Amino acid sequence: MTEVAWFAALCDDDYEFLGVPDPALQSSWNHCRNIVLRAEANGFDNVLLPSGYALGLDATAFAAAIAAETSRIKLLLAVRLGELVVPQLARQIATLQQIAGGRLVINAISSDVPGETMSSEARYQRTTETIGVLRTLLRGERADFDGEYVTAHMDAPRIAVDHPHDPIIYFGGLSEAARECAAESCDVYLMWPDTTDQMRKVMREMDARAAKFGRTLRYGWRSHVVVRDTEADARAAATRLLSRLNADTGEAIRARSLDSQSAGVARQSELRDAADDDGYLERHLWTGVGRARSGAGIAIVGDPDQVTSKLCELRDAGVKTFILSGYPHLAECDLVAKHVLPKLRRAT
Question: Between residues 270 and 182, which one has the greater pLDDT?
């Protein structure tokens, strides 16, 4: 079954014009709450609650509050592994899961802790160890583990014993160390946009890696969307998004992200360089968003049939989860719900 998620812009990443801050769109409880409530009302299955250190709101505190105001939509909480000791993290997640009535799922983030720099191999080894111990504790079981970065000899917290669960973990990363960590540890391997052929290649390779651990993976796609009644209108809306972006501002936005040196970000930059003069890698894949943000920097741009067709192409290639966003997030949430979700549901 295809899962379609929206994006709650918790990290000051909502604009009418990319790179031009708008106080009305700055991350706040009211603004981000409205995005999640709209996504639930519009029929999205899930919503990503992203996490940053310097920018926006704390995702965990937000998740606790919004869980009490929603009833159906799943909450995909980004957790920056390494910032909390694992027993504390386990108790926190178990508590959130109870508040959310079982709707909490985890997006494991393997970024550096602010103020430290680790090698990619070390970070992902720490992530693998953290996820392993975290799963044990959340299942309500005792953990006895001595790793290179995580040591745990303890019983599970009472709330996890009383309400055990094995968390669904989403995870992304392109480096060799990230892929090995994902194959061993995650349930849904998230990919930033690329050509469909390259996506297929990555999925085949990840299937083989996961099989070594006796595991299987689901696959996800994280991108932006610009959908309008006509392709011309969609392209004009994409052009308008960048119409006030200063190149130096865009570079500064990308540089201040903690993942700015990752393999995934490097690949998004390669794809921008390969695009045509209007920023299109393919007819409906526009790389312009990446000029003003780190991370996923490509949007699907087109009319309702074209956007749906691209999503179906990816679904047929093996992608089962789509995490979408658009600018401004409330307005584009309505447009995607109106023009794309019904068509995609009928095509599933």
Answer: 182
